[in-house]
Structures are given as C-alpha cells and as structure tokens.
From TrEMBL:
Segments traversing the membrane: 7-24, 30-52, 64-86, 120-138, 150-170, 195-214, 226-249, 255-273, 280-298, 373-396, 403-420, 426-444
Identification of the protein by name: O-antigen ligase-related domain-containing protein
Database matches in PANTHER family: TEICHURONIC ACID BIOSYNTHESIS PROTEIN TUAE
Membrane-protein topology: Multi-pass membrane protein
Location of this chain's protein in the cell: Membrane
Organism of derivation: Rhodospirillum rubrum (strain ATCC 11170 / ATH 1.1.1 / DSM 467 / LMG 4362 / NCIMB 8255 / S1)
Cellular component terms (Gene Ontology): membrane
Principal location: membrane
C-alpha cells in the first residue's frame, strides 16, 4: 500500500504524541520545546503540501477557524503579557519595586515571569497545532482508526513498563532514580496523578474500541459477529485490564474517580449515538462497574484508603485553594502571566502552608487559568474548548457512523476536566498533547463528510461500520 504525503504527516504526528510521555511526560523545557518544534514542522509540511497539491481540493477549514479564533486571541494575550511594550499602568507593581531596589535598569511586564509566559504560549500553541492537524487529517476514516489504535496500544505499553517496574521494586524513572512518589506506579511520569490521568485516557481508548465491536455489523451472521467481537475486541480488553491495574497501583484517587466519571460519559455518549442499544449500554456499565470494583478491592488497598482519607481537604490542599481564590480575585482582569503561577504564588503564600513544598500549580485548573490569564482570556479559552465539545455532542446524533470518535473526545475531556478540579494533570505536555489529538479526531468525525473533498474520502471505502 502506497502512503500519501498526508498519511506520512499523520503518522509522524502520532509518533510525536505517543512518544511525548517518554521524557518524563515531556514536562521539561527541552522536551516541550522539541514537542513544539516538531509540531510546527509538521504544520509547515502539511501547509506546503496543501498549497502545491495539484488538483486536490483544499480541506474545509471554516469550522476549524471558528474554534481557533478564541484560542488565537488567548495566544495573543499571552504574548502581550510577556511583552515589555505594554503601557506602564498595565505592568505589575512588583516591577516598579524591583526597579527601585536594583541598580541596573529593570524592564516591566504584565507577567511576573516573561520567560515562563513565553513557554506557556509556545506549549498552548503546540497543542493547538496538534489539534488542528488531527482535525484536517483525521477526516480520513482510516487515519482516525489508526490514531485511536496507536494511542490505545502506546498507553498499554507505558502501563506494562510501569507494572514491571512496580512489581520488581525498581524505584526508577527510566535511567533516573525516583525521589518522589516512592511506592507508587508512575511509569515514565514523575507524578502519580499525571500517570493516573494518562492511564485513564488509554483505558478510555481501549474501552471505546471494545465497545465498538458490540455493535452488530449490517452484513454477516452471528458467527461472523462473534468472531469479530473476540478477535477484534479481546486484545483491547486485555489492554484495558492492564491499564486499570496500572491506574490502581498509581494510588491516584483523583485520577481513579475522574476515570470512572469519564467511563460513564463514554457509555452514555455511545448510547445516545445509537452505537450501543441502551440495553447493551446498561449491561456494559454493570459489567465494567463490577469488574472495576472487584479489581479495586482485591488488588491494592492504598488507593481505597486514600479515597476514605478526607484530611487533605482541610489541610494543605484546602489552604492552597483558599489562597488560589484570593489570587484569582486579584488577577481577574489581566492575570499574572500565562505559566507564571509559581512566582505569583510566592507573593501570597503564608504560614498556613509551613511545609517546604514548592507549589508550581494551583491544583485547580479553573482557578489557575484565571490567575494566569485573567478572567476574560480564561473565558475565551473555555469558549474554544466548549465549541469543540458542543460539535462532538451534536455529532453523536447527526452522524450515522464513526460516532465513537466524538464520544471518546467527550469522555477524554470530561476525565481531565473533572480531574482538574483537584489536580493539574492537563498541565503535563504529554497529556495535553494526547487530549488535543483525541479532540481533533472527535471534532473531525463529528461533522458530515457530505459533500466530501478528495482528501476526506481517502480510504473511506473501508470499514463501513465500527472502527475494528
């Protein structure tokens, strides 16, 4: 089979996303810079290919442009925050105090840390590029199927690595010694909550692939359907089992609860889309619930003990949320700068947090967005995401096939949005990039392909039903 230029670009995009967790969740400057650079190169290659594509109609970009506009405004605002050209009364007062205390010239900014803000703009832009490429290339059904399978298997591979390290008792992150979260399964991530969220995303992908095989195809008898279900669904069921085990041994109660909510969203979405009958959807939910509860009770007690422990809400986490609320109130107009939560938090930290812990994140993504961006820009960012999710929700009913992708996009977003109430897993570049890819595929497959372009129709003759 000859691969087109778009096929090669899409496969490179998949490789970028699934390899992102390898260097500590890409949460290091070199890793997230490489992620942004490669995403930019892929966008340039796709743009050149589209411009010189003789006789190939360009893809329809109007729906993507409507979603991209609020995000572009947020990126522009992030650049303004990092700029030294803003009016003097826009600059944070701390810069004036620094100018009076230091001998050399001090250039003021709206952001408390312009370098962090530029990094924040770069990361957010790279996620937008991944989403956009997934949108335009994921209109092709064969590519969308490939993307879902690759994410499922790569997440399973990370889970297998983590389980091997966990049961062997090797407290290492690749070639590095672990210094935090000893006794927790984190695979290639530093933070157990981040890996728990990533394992949850992989579990959703495997579950979506399993459930898609429950839909009986239009052609073929029961024997053909049974063979398709066993051969097509069983490998992903095994992957889902391994990911569930890895999630439990991460001991992340937030990721576990958020994943449970996301599984419910996925099954309800598939029922709404008529991919599953409500009878099968109810049975699947019952089986998954009983299986998950059994694994939780028999595999490891640490996560259950942490679920029952409510002292953290009245301890450091409660004080962190209180201080975050004060910061959000003070920064509601223009923010302290995208990516600049950590230096801003040092101005507010008090004796209620005596432990020598550095807080780089607010442990609540909604508060953190307002603190860093200000309320108007945070609402624009939320508007862009809401438009994507609304399109996915509408696609559940207006599409007659491939509703598995918008359903998965809704479930993946719900996982990280629920988890974001108490943690910051979406701030990990590898997780944000994975979500961007899944949202892009869901958005692409939530819209009708009629009338379709030549690009949209590549490979559409295959697999008229399901994604198996």
């Amino acid at each position: 089979m000859t691969l087109s230029a778009n096929d090669l670009i899409f496969r490179a995009l998949l490789a970028l996303v699934v390899l992102a967790p390898l260097p500590l969740g890409a949460n290091r400057p070199a890793a997230w810079s490489a992620l942004a650079l490669i995403a930019g190169i892929l966008l340039a290659l796709w743009s050149i290919r589209t411009l010189i594509g003789a006789g190939t109609p360009p893809p329809r970009l109007a729906p993507l442009a409507r979603v991209a506009l609020p995000l572009l405004l947020v990126l522009v605002w992030g650049g303004v925050q990092a700029s030294a050209l803003v009016p003097a009364d826009w600059r944070h007062p701390l810069w004036a105090e620094a100018a009076s205390a230091l001998p050399g010239p001090v250039v003021g900014h709206l952001s408390l840390d312009p370098a962090r803000s530029l990094d924040g703009v770069m990361k957010l832009l790279s996620y937008g590029v991944i989403f956009g490429l997934a949108c335009v290339l994921g209109r092709n059904r064969a590519r969308a199927r490939l993307g879902l399978r690759v994410v499922a298997w790569s997440a399973t591979a990370y889970a297998i690595y983590g389980l091997c390290m966990f049961f062997a008792g090797w407290e290492r992150l690749l070639w590095l010694e672990k210094t935090d979260y000893l006794g927790d399964l984190t695979a290639t991530f530093v933070n157990r909550n981040a890996f728990g969220a990533y394992a949850g995303l992989g579990l959703l992908c495997c579950l979506a692939l399993v459930l898609s095989h429950l839909r009986r195809p239009a052609r073929g008898g029961m024997r053909h359907h049974a063979e398709r279900l066993v051969l097509g669904g069983l490998p992903y069921a095994l992957g889902g089992f391994l990911l569930t085990m890895a999630l439990l041994f991460s001991h992340s109660r937030g990721a576990l609860l958020a994943t449970a909510c996301a599984v419910l969203v996925l099954i309800l979405a598939l029922g709404t889309a008529r991919v599953l009958s409500w009878r099968i959807a109810s049975a699947a939910l019952l089986v998954i619930g009983i299986g998950g509860a059994t694994l939780s009770l028999t595999s490891d007690q640490v996560t259950l003990e942490r679920l029952l422990d409510q002292t953290e809400l009245s301890g450091d986490r409660g004080q962190l949320l209180r201080l975050g609320g004060e910061m959000a109130s003070d920064a509601s107009a223009g923010g302290f700068g995208i990516g600049a939560f950590a230096p801003a938090f040092r101005l507010y930290r008090d004796a209620s947090l005596p432990r020598p812990v550095i807080y780089d994140f607010a442990h609540n993504i909604y508060l953190e967005a307002i603190i860093e961006l200000g309320l108007p820009a945070a609402l624009l960012l939320g508007l862009s995401l809401t438009m994507v999710l609304t399109s996915c929700a509408l696609g559940l009913r207006r599409r007659r096939r491939d509703q598995i992708y918008p359903a998965l996009a809704l479930a993946a977003a719900s996982l990280l949005l629920v988890h974001g109430l108490a943690d910051f897993s979406i701030s990990m570049p590898a997780i944000a990039a994975t979500l961007a890819l899944l949202l892009g595929l869901g958005f692409a497959q939530s819209r009708s392909t009629r009338p379709a372009t030549a690009t949209d129709e590549e490979g559409d003759a295959e697999a008229a039903h399901g994604v198996g």
